[in-house]
Design brief:
One of its GO terms (biological process) is methylation. The chain has helices at about 5-30, 35-45, 100-110, 125-135, 150-160, 205-210, 235-245, 250-260; strands at about 45-50, 60, 80-85, 90-95, 115-120, 140-145, 165-170, 185-195, 215-225, 265-270, 285-290. The mean pLDDT is about 90. Helix 1 (about 5-30) crosses helix 2 (about 35-45) and helix 1 runs parallel beside helix 5 (about 150-160). It is α/β, with parallel strands linked by helices and about 290 residues long. The chain has eight helices and eleven strands.
Length: about 290
């Protein structure tokens, strides 16, 4: 049975509404879609979203670093951070990141062409905009499904500032994975990026619904599921405890396996703990195509 704590649904609604206000201010100041997204990205390098324990209000809290951490003098800019990779905690330059979007662009080029690029759990559409402006196909339709109302509305406002980009955004719930398309696309590329992670259990028919996106469908996921398959090292146990404590996803790998066994999908490939995320909520990669 699919399940997610109402606490997390409520937090995401508030958090995306808070981000939406910031992005709207950027657009009103004359920024285009990508500039607004990069302003938010810059903001969140120095601040993290949190909740006031007294009022329940969502707010930005400054990320503080200690004097003994390597940083640029008279700034709050750290140079190194702890990351998770392949079951271990490693130290990397602070501004190092795993560039999933570039990987997707290369994969789309190698396996395309596609009529539609679809992200499920897209937030305000950041990945879709960056793929389009980063070298993604210009003639494909970019489609985002998002749970929060504010996320969908903000993505639509950003799209107005990207007139050459064909877009569509709609409400999507990982607990009830329904796609709104009247007929499937000829070739669809579907992906998720750290959005299934926040749903404790997805439905066993998740892939059954998603493959309806196209006559041919290619799927890609960057989600933190490595601990579900293998203990790769000390971080795997820590990560498992973290996911259980937060009531985050515990069954993605099993639902993927069942879909493969039932011949809903094929050509499955998995690469564990590749994400190199700064909070050590390390993502693993899964790829498949429609059977």
């Amino acid at each position: 049975m699919a399940f997610q704590l109402p606490h997390w649904q409520d937090f995401y609604e508030k958090a995306w509404a808070f981000r939406a206000k910031f992005l709207e201010e950027q657009l009103e100041s004359g920024a285009n879609a990508l500039q607004a997204i990069k302003e938010l990205e810059k903001k969140e390098r120095g601040y993290t979203l949190g909740v006031n324990d007294t009022t329940g209000e969502v707010l930005y809290m400054k990320k503080e670093i200690s004097d003994d951490e390597p940083h640029i003098k008279d700034t709050n800019i750290a140079l190194y951070s702890k990351r998770g990779f392949n079951g271990n905690i490693i130290i990397l330059p602070k501004h190092t990141s795993y560039d999933f979007r570039t990987l997707l662009i290369d994969l789309i080029d190698a396996t395309g062409p596609y009529d539609a690029i679809i992200e499920l759990g897209c937030g305000y559409g950041r990945n879709l905009f960056e793929i389009f402006y980063g070298g993604g196909p210009r003639d494909a339709k970019y489609i985002g499904g998002e749970f929060t109302k504010s996320g969908v509305e903000t993505a639509q406002k950003l799209a107005k500032k990207a007139p050459k980009m064909k877009t569509e955004f709609f409400h999507f719930n990982h607990l009830e994975p329904k796609l709104p398309f009247k007929k499937p696309f000829k070739r669809a590329f579907v992906f998720t990026c750290h959005s299934i992670e926040q749903v404790m259990q997805i439905n066993e028919n998740w892939f059954d619904e998603v493959v309806k996106a196209g006559e041919f469908v290619r799927g890609a996921h960057l989600e933190p599921f490595g601990f579900q398959l293998k203990n790769s090292g000390p971080l795997s146990d820590m990560h498992k405890d973290f996911m259980i404590q937060n009531s985050w996803n515990i069954n993605f790998a099993e639902v993927l396996r069942q879909a493969l066994e039932r011949k809903i999908i094929k050509d499955e490939q998995i690469f564990l703990e590749m994400g190199v995320t700064p909070d050590m909520n390390v993502g693993s990669l899964a790829f498949w195509s429609k059977a």
